[in-house]
Amino acid sequence: MKNTSFFAVDLGATSGRTILGMVKEGSIELRELTRFQNNLIEVNGHFYWDIYALYHEIINGLNQVSKEKIPIASIGVDTWGVDFVCVGKDGEILRNPYSYRDPHTIGLPEELFKRIPREDIYQMTGIQIMNFNSLYQLAAMKKNSSSVLPVTDKILFTPDALSYMLTGEIVTEYTIASTSQLINPIKKEFEPVLLELLELPRKTFGKLVYPGTKVGILSKSVQMQTGLSSVPVIAVAGHDTASAVAAVPAPDKNFAYLSSGTWSLMGIELEQPFINEESFKMNFTNEGGVEGTTRFMKTICGMWLLERCRKEWAMVADYSYTDLIEAAMKAPAFRSLINPDASCFANPVSMIEAIKHYCKTTEQAVPETYGEITRCIFESLALIYRYTLENLKRVAPFSIERLHVIGGGSKNNLLNSFTANALGIKVVAGPSEATAIGNIMLQAKAAGVVSSIQQMREMICASIDVNVFEPVEKDIWDEGYVAFLKVFRENI
Ligand code: LFR
Question: Can you tell me which residues the record assigns to a coiled coil (predicted)?
Fold first, then answer.
């Protein structure tokens, strides 16, 4: 196997990176080239992403490669899900895209369910009902007489939009499209009933392609700006979670995964979608994975809770994650618990106040110090993971023997041990760079350097170190779980 380098762009809701992946001799090596912030921009009550700033950061990363004369075989972009860019007939981006944190979708699902019942929408798409899914974003734009929608010729999901800005070519990659709640996972096509509801012709979206498809080559303009030649851009698993799941270092199928970052995505890998009354009641999602697999999982609010608190604490003191973890370890156990998924935590003015208010309303001790608040977040996350695992265990067609925690959150050893204790199974933590690794591996597959997801996973197992956490303190965590279920409220 010859050494080949690939360029991955991995964009999360709070930060982004460009990464160089070197695949050689059955192993993979990563080097971060650039890291930058992704800012949620609020203007007159709406929340946007700056798609031009993100594109500019990709150009910066490519310039770095060019300066160092590193030959890259291809480029791949992955991002968070559901958001999209509208493009006019002249090929121009019509305005910066809304962020899924924009409140314009609040109440939208319930309005749509008056026209198509909730059960039917779930049955058609198999996607967890969350008010920010593209389906409801588009319905909100329509309801608010968006000036953009009537002049929209094409809708591009974020990774496809960036690939378009790099190449001028349009595709709709399947894993990212599946997050929209517009795709029927059985037919693997946009659902005509939902397109009709939104009055959008099928041609508003590009041709559906699967991870590993070439989108095009760098446009002349990008070549001029970077000094690179006609490097191909590959549609990887454009949804960050799909790229991350592809990189789970699992030797067999008996596992659940938890992709831990701003969000916690917890699920199992299935050969087929699992859509029935039970999955509907559990409100589990069936998103597209690599090689035709289904990511049967739950989207849980993750490190967002702490990220937002940290921003508030930064006004008075700059606590590092190590500071927060140390303080949490010293704080009393199971004193205050929250449902991380309650709607009050979606985008509150103050996360600290929202957490305190939740605890007060549920008649618990109100956490005051940063250690207490951090502990409340970690314990509550571990306990909601248990709730989710119990649901997964009921329906999984295999026994779940361990949980693989991947993504940035897998570096949090305190949360990893809480999770192992809460779940009562072994937790295998790492790689923290799973998304970038999956992105690079899919480019390597497109280049013919690796042949299958299984081979990819074997290479990842050989290249990275993982940390294993065995469960302890069963009785204490069982009691904690009972306390959690008592205060588990949807809306506060
Ligand atoms: C994670 C993620 C989740 C999706 C959320 C919003 O980064 O992609 O899978 O539900 O962001 O798009």
Answer: none
